[in-house]
């Protein structure tokens, strides 16, 4: 037997007499792939039901004979959804987009400035202010709901974008996340900025923000999804159909008399598309930003 043959035989034999996989994979890799595939399929089941029912009639949705997909896809449900005179769905989508974008930008600005001030600007009562922010996290939203509505109503902001956006610009939890993040931000960069003559605002805007885009993108994604999915506050503020958001429009398809199943599913399928696009576009920054929140053991 040649030396090369002996070498191949030695490499082929694994410790304990077991042969290794030619690619170096562990024996449990196949099981891991199978489990991941099954979990992925289960995750996709709600989306399949959503698309299937959106392209069906009410009889096919509630019928006893289940079909994987209807034989005749009801693409006309899309036109029926947008042509419905009782529910301005296109207007609701636009309102949700405006509210979601402005709410996200405003929250990022207000909460990041508050978090930066609590983390970097030294003053006597900084800890007290921070504890006061933490206390707001323990107050149920139902407690402040009525006073907020009275204030918005007295300002004449009912049925307006101002009433939908401004009351929710500050979030105690988002402020807390920004403070924790800025506490771990390298001070050397800010000290170099101050040596160049920049103050707190200049250091924040020119140094901190450009080097924290991953974290801003993560918080912005979460905030946008939360604003898009908000229901109770827009339901109370948006009393006129022209001020409805998409979540309020969805609820209008369910009444005491009728339930339009095919319109509900079609409207839901269309309303989640912006969230899917936002998540797919920002998922890399979302994962990196969550890892940099500073909430570690």
Description:
With 297 residues, this protein is mainly α. The protein is 67% helix and 0% strand. The chain contains 16 helices and no strands. The protein has helices at 3-12, 29-54, 58-62, 76-83, 89-120, 126-136, 141-154, 161-165, 172-183, 187-195, 200-208, 213-229, 232-237, 246-251, 261-271, 273-291. α4 packs across α15, α5 crosses α12 (213-229) and α12 runs antiparallel to α16. It is globular and about 70 Å long. The termini are far apart.
End-to-end CA span: 58 Å
**Helix/strand order, N-terminal first:** HHHHHHHHHHHHHHHH
Average pLDDT taken over every residue:
84
Strand content: under 5%
Helix content: 55-70%
* Total helical elements: 16
- Overall shape: it is globular
Radius of gyration using CA atoms only: 27 Å
Q: Summarize the biggest pleated sheet.
A: none
Q: Tally the beta strands.
A: 0
């Amino acid at each position: 037997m040649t030396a090369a043959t002996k070498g191949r035989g030695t490499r082929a034999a694994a410790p304990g007499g077991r042969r290794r996989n030619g690619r170096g994979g562990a024996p449990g890799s196949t099981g891991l792939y199978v489990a991941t595939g099954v979990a992925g399929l289960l995750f996709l089941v709600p989306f399949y039901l959503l698309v299937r029912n959106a392209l069906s009639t009410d009889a096919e949705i509630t019928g006893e004979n289940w079909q994987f997909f209807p034989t005749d896809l009801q693409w006309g449900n899309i036109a029926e959804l947008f042509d419905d005179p009782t529910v301005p769905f296109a207007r609701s989508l636009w309102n949700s987009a405006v509210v979601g974008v402005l709410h996200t930008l405003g929250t990022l600005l207000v909460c990041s400035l508050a978090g930066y001030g609590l983390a970097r600007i030294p003053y006597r009562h900084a800890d007290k202010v921070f504890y006061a922010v933490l206390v707001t996290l323990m107050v149920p939203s139902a407690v402040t709901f009525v006073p907020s509505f009275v204030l918005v109503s007295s300002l004449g902001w009912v049925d307006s974008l101002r009433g939908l956006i401004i009351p929710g610009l500050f979030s105690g939890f988002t402020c807390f996340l920004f403070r924790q993040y800025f506490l771990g931000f390298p001070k050397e960069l800010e000290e170099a900025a101050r040596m160049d003559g920049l103050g707190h605002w200049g250091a924040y805007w020119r140094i901190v923000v450009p080097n924290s885009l991953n974290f801003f993108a993560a918080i912005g994604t979460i905030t946008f999804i939360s604003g898009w999915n908000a229901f109770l506050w827009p339901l109370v503020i948006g009393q006129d159909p022209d001020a409805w958001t998409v979540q309020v429009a969805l609820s209008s398809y369910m009444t005491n008399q009728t339930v339009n199943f095919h319109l509900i599913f079609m409207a839901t399928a269309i309303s989640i598309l912006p969230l899917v696009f936002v998540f797919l576009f920002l998922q890399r920054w979302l994962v990196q930003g969550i890892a940099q929140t500073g909430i570690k053991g």
